[in-house]
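Quarterly update from the structural biology core.
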Amino acid sequence: MLFALGVVLFAVGIGVSIALHEAGHMWTAKALGMKVRRYYIGFGPKIFSFRRGETEYGLKAIPAGGFCDIAGMTAIDELAPDEVERAMYRQKTWKRIVVMVGGIAMNFVLGIVLVYALVLGWGTPDRATPPTVQVSDVVCIAPTQSEDGELAPCSGASPAQQAGLRTGDVVTAVNGVPAQYWSEVVEAVQASSGSVDLTVERNGASVDLTIPVTEVQRYVTDPDTGAKESTTVGAVGVSGSTIAPPPIRYNPIEAVPETFAFTGEIFVQTGKALVELPTKVEALWESIFGGERGLDTPMSVVGASVIGGQAAETNNWATFVGLLASLNFFLGAFNIVPLLPLDGGHIAVTVYERIRNIFRNRRGLPDGAPVDYMKLMPVTYVVIVVFIGFSLLTLTADIVNPIQLF
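Predicted structure, tokenized:
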């Protein structure tokens, strides 16, 4: 029940994000004297619509976006007599850019509001304190492992136990190399032969342990292909985990600067994700055919909604809010990309026209004609096809091999 509720709530959150993006275009266009003919959420068959003033508002069946129809957005639009002087392409450069930025700004504003709610409600990670790598159990060593991850029965004391390793010990270094995550301990032990040196903290004191390594059969994921392979690795008979420090909580005033600091970090990660987006195609393709699905691979609206449902089911509302905030930042940043039909493409055309006209005016020439969007249509169609293909790829990966956070 909670899972379904979470999926629905996250889908509604995405719908609100899209609606506010388009509303940003509509509100700025109206405020600057342009005519907004239609404001719709969704695509495909119309479910319902109504008219207020000169604008038709409505909802369509396919919840995959929305649109704001501004009269004369390009010079190829057909205009009614009362729309000619109010056509968007005839407006000053700054007005056209404000309208295009209006939608992007709404996503950024909504993202910041959600981050503030996250900071105020659940706090943010303690970025100054490193995580703790802690031993959770000292166990016997299973000689083999099945492909599904199940370990064979075992008995007796493990080398780690015989060497004096205890539950609750904090591992600070492996073979003299500082350890920040339990995965680093596992990788170092598996790659070792003979023995492995662990430095642990126990009751405030540092203890050095040399533990004999036993060779066992395990299934290990190949970092290049993502495939699981049976191989011989080292083991000492210990399990553990990485324990993050508790989050820092803030009052309503303290939460304001932390919101902008945390938003800055999200912006950096969003920029990296956007730049690396084309490089993730191969990983997505491989995940569909049995490869491991990386946590850093893109996901569709469906995949994000499923994770939202899982977050609600496990009462992890901080992840729910944070994911929705990140989605808004990504949507805003993606629309800045200077390619049609994205907002950034329209901004690029507007800026080009202005620069061109400045040089024409300096030569005593009048402003040039508006950019012929018909000549840009082939490139636009390519962008649309690539976008649809990538969307279908992420959707398929989310259905066949979804990202597992919980």
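Strands lie at 36-52, 55-70, 132-138, 170-174, 177-178, 195-202, 205-212, 214-221, 228-235, 238-243.
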